[in-house]
Design brief:
The complex is a heterodimer of chains A (123) and B (396).
Chain A lengths: L1 H5 L5 H9 L5 H48 L3 E9 L3 E10 L4 H20 L1
Helix pairs in contact in A: 2-3
Chain B lengths: L28 H10 L3 H15 L1 H15 L7 H10 L6 H30 L4 E3 L3 H15 L13 H40 L5 E6 L4 E4 L24 H26 L2 H17 L2 E10 L4 E8 L2 H31 L3 H39 L6
Parallel strand pairs in B: 1-3
Antiparallel strand pairs in B: 2-3, 2-5, 4-5
Helix pairs in contact in B: 2-3, 5-7, 6-7, 7-8, 10-11
The chains are: A alpha+beta (123), B alpha+beta (396).
Chain lengths: 123, 396
């Protein structure tokens, strides 16, 4: 897919069009072709940077997900926010939570305490 | 009492030869006229001399003649009076080449002005952000933009040196370039949809929130509501063939615009060529996150060729959702309890003045907290019921 997309960075068509435009001097044609080629170099350099960026993002995501999963398995409460820049955009991943074994008993005890206080006061 | 006025004197002006780019926006007409005056051929110079004597007298002409070479070589400053005299007389004595050069400036800059005017008006038309669920909206914009381009007129001409035919050429070239750019934008939108929509179709059951934003039209399209690919009508427009005296300049300008459009297109391809790859990563990690025990929120932005796709999703595991319901319930109960305990104690100890203040200060805050917790509780309960019924991830 990526290669298919990059195959569209074809310059032969525009150079062909420049060649068919009437009344252009050889110097003009040469200057325009040079501009096309120099822009193309810059664009391809940018494409390579984006590929690298995307690979780094993929690696970072795998590492982060692995760590979060490990923390979850250990029964730890996790709160994290990650911003990962990819080749074509950005991911914001926010995670909150963790093992529920500890939270449930705490909530139940808290509930019992509240009910007990209410019973004592209003009995 | 005497008043003293101070002023900064204007620096003297010394003439120097300048290289003019007639296709550029910056054209110093006054300097161009001075240059024409000092570069005039013998015949033109004789005509200028006659005109000068007739208008300003022999003595003034002798002064001009005396200083002419010094001025031309930049060795003696030109006073404002002399400069203004030369500038005011020179338009009558311009050579054919000078007139042609002014024409180049007028021709190219009128095209640029037409294009800029259209772009400026486009910003005015779409200055209000709009959201649409309807695909027809894009087609409507396309049609109205085509209409707007075809109805543009030449804005103004600075020197009025172009013939009617040349003015028509200017207008047709402006329309051609604008049509080309518009068509390109919509081809890019079409391509963005062909990349994004298959993914949206794939994930539509997950109830993602997905929007595609097109900056030039300040339009955000809700992608949750449709999944069919769009096809814009293929409007063909012919290139206007120039036969006038500026055809060489016009072709050069069109060629350079084509190169700019080509480069911009390629830049956009590079900005978006990793979309499929990145959306795949997004979905892969979405699957992983749903298996975790945590609340997760994923917001992602994918730069397309013509617009930006924004996808956001809240992932709420059913176990954690149950805890949230319980927590919201307990919070509501405890706020209600605090309210009634306080009320009971104040009435029991007959602290009525304090009761009024307490109601005013804490009561209002407590009641609003109770209200928000109760609504949170009901929303979470609804979400939990929905989740149980669907057996899928809830809506974000």
């Amino acid at each position: 897919m990526e290669n298919n997309q990059l195959a569209r960075l074809d310059n032969s068509k525009i150079i062909e069009i420049i060649d068919t435009i009437p009344n252009l001097s050889e110097t003009d044609r040469h200057e325009l072709s040079l501009r096309v080629v120099s822009d193309d170099i810059e664009i391809r350099k940018n494409a390579l940077e984006k590929i690298t960026q995307s690979q780094i993002a993929q690696h970072d995501l795998t590492v982060i997900m692995g760590e979060l999963s490990a923390l979850n398995k250990q029964g730890m409460y996790v709160k994290s926010k990650q911003i990962i820049k990819t080749g074509s955009g950005q991911f914001d991943i926010e995670m909150k939570g963790g093992d529920t074994k500890l939270i449930v008993p705490v909530l139940i005890i808290l509930g019992i305490v509240i009910i007990a206080v209410l019973v004592i006061l209003f009995w | 009492m005497k008043k003293y006025y101070s002023y900064r004197s204007k620096p003297n002006f010394y003439y120097s030869v300048k290289e003019f780019d007639f296709t550029s926006k910056d054209f110093y007409y006054d300097h161009f006229l001075l240059q024409e005056f000092f570069n005039a051929d013998l015949k033109t110079k004789e005509e200028i001399d006659k005109f000068y004597i007739n208008n300003y007298g022999k003595r003034a002409f002798e002064y001009l003649n005396d200083k002419y070479l010094k001025w031309a070589n930049g060795k003696y400053h030109l006073t404002d009076m002399m400069k203004n005299r030369i500038i005011s007389l020179m338009p009558k004595f311009l050579s054919e080449k000078a007139k042609y050069n002014i024409g180049i400036y007028e021709y190219i800059n009128a095209i640029k002005r037409n294009i800029n005017n259209y772009n400026w008006k486009q910003k005015q038309v779409y200055n209000k952000a709009t959201t649409s669920d309807n695909i027809e909206q894009i087609i409507k914009i396309y049609d109205s933009e085509c209409e707007r381009i075809n109805s543009i007129n030449n804005s103004y001409f600075r020197f009025n040196v172009l013939s009617g035919y040349e003015q028509k050429e200017v207008l047709e070239i402006s329309k051609y370039i604008l049509n080309l750019k518009l068509k390109n934008t919509f081809i890019q939108i079409e391509r963005d949809f062909s990349v994004f929509l298959p993914y949206i179709k794939k994930i539509i059951n997950y109830s993602f929130s997905a929007h595609y934003y097109i900056e030039p039209f300040n339009l955000s399209i809700n992608l949750n509501t449709f999944s069919n690919n769009i096809k814009f009508p293929n409007i063909k427009f012919d290139r206007f063939e120039q036969n006038g005296r500026y055809s060489e300049i016009a072709n050069k300008y069109i060629a350079s615009e084509l190169v700019v459009i080509h480069s911009t297109n390629n830049k956009r391809v590079v900005n978006s060529f990793l979309n499929s790859h990145d959306i795949d990563i997004f979905l892969e990690h979405y699957e992983k996150l749903t298996a975790e025990k945590s609340y997760s929120k994923m917001n992602s932005v994918f730069q397309g060729e013509a617009g930006v796709l924004k996808i956001s999703i809240d992932i709420k595991p059913i176990k954690l959702l149950r805890i949230s319901v319980l927590l919201a319930f307990l919070k509501s109960i405890s706020y209600i309890a605090i309210f009634f305990i306080g009320l009971f104690l104040l009435v029991y100890f007959k602290l009525f003045t304090l009761l009024i203040f307490a109601i005013l200060i804490f009561g209002i805050a407590l009641i609003s907290s109770i209200k928000s917790e109760v609504s949170r509780f009901t929303n979470l309960t609804k979400e939990l019921i929905k989740l149980k019924q669907n057996g899928k991830q809830p809506t974000c």
